[in-house]
Amino acid sequence: MNLCFIAEGSYPYMTGGISSWMNIYMKCFPDYKLSLYTIAARESDKGKFVCKIPENMIHIEEVFLDTPLKKKPKRFPSRIVKSSKQQELLIKHFSGEKVDWAQVFDFVDKLKKYRLIDFFNSADFYEIVDYIYNKDFQNAPYNDFLWSIRTMFIYEFHVLQGHVPEADIYHSVSAGFPGIVGSKIRYNSKKPFILTEHGIYVREREEEILKSDFILGYIKELWIKYFRSMSLCAYNFADKIVSQFQRNREVQIEFGADREKTVIIPNGMNTEDYNFPEQDRIYGDDFVVGTIARIVPIKDIITLVRAFEKAQQLYDDKMRLVIVGPNDEDPQYSRYVLDYVEKRNIQNITFTGKVDYETYLKSLYSFDVFILTSISEGQPLSLLEAMASGKPAIVTDVGSCSEIVLGTFDNIGEAGIVARVMDSDALGEAIVKLAKNKDLRMKMGQAARKRVQQYYTIDYMGSSYRKLYEDLKR
């Protein structure tokens, strides 16, 4: 069996999240030949892998979003959009309206004879942009509108034109760009295509955009419509759509997924991978509360910082907050968080940035308590990894976090504390409660590991996906 994964902004360039899932997941298929089509932001990241690549990974195709933007445009005297039908398609697509994605895929293939930078600086492109702007967006600054359209679709067309490895089955590990790439493969090759959503892509992007101060209100609707269109494309073309728990399955159906296509496969762990040998704590001997997260709005790192600030005010001894994860995905938000820390003179916070896998595991070992303050999640791998490591958890009530931590359907006991989203006071008080009570931490940590061992196993996850692949290949 040849299996090709399609990923974006994660594996193999960083640890945590989907990268952790793929590291765990690919161990289930040592008998398969694996390949990867991975989408990253910058060419400067080329080959900078921090994840261990499995021996049966026979090919990695890297695609970088900034590649077409580095070329200088040339003037084209002839028209690139050849018909009114093509122009109508692009107007609808660029407006976020419902389109036949098969026609979009055909147009993108025809566009291969031109450089993308030339098309997105052509008279044809400007005519389409002007029409949409004058029809619906005259209250928005024209340059902001133009930048949004060009950014969305030069990236889209670029990833759709990339060289995807040959395989028997294609598996996108998120919607968005991986979802539409998998859809195009399904359309062109008729090969089976599976979509796994760890969080609901369209909902997470909507929440990020609505919360963002960096996208103008007039343009937010355009971005939201675009993300909805991409998700619906993936739902329509996928043979199977996987979520990790029932609530997310229902949300997928609500956003347009065919119920008959949807499948629930919980994430799984091998707790033996988290039997850490005795070693030095890499963040010192103070009480350490830590998270594994990107510094982006959806992870609500500013609330985490405020919660830690509150905890320091209530706790007499020293404590440290450690945030393990990249800080370059949303530079403006990262700067906002760092400015807050500096202006408030909050001490003992460590931002690690990107780390290698060894440091990632040592960080888990060094945490006394794991904390997650996201405003949206699915079934977070970082939480399951922390629990497999025997760490108690403080989480916001998003996705399946509450049922994982509190054990809604078992009698194992509570593995941590659940708080409302953005409630920094409650989160801070939870940190202090666990900091002051080592026995409670130990009890919750034991319950955490036991729950993962019983209900979130790698064997069940691997066998469920293997059956899915084999059924689709028949």
UniProtKB/TrEMBL annotation:
InterPro entries: DUF3492 (IPR022622), Glyco_trans_1 (IPR001296), PelF-like (IPR047691). Residues 1-260 form the DUF3492 domain. This is Glycosyltransferase. Pfam families: DUF3492, Glycos_transf_1. Residues 277-451 form the Glycosyl transferase family domain. Keywords: Transferase. The keyword Transferase applies. It comes from Acetivibrio clariflavus (strain DSM 19732 / NBRC 101661 / EBR45). The lineage of its organism: Bacteria, Bacillati, Bacillota, Clostridia, Eubacteriales.
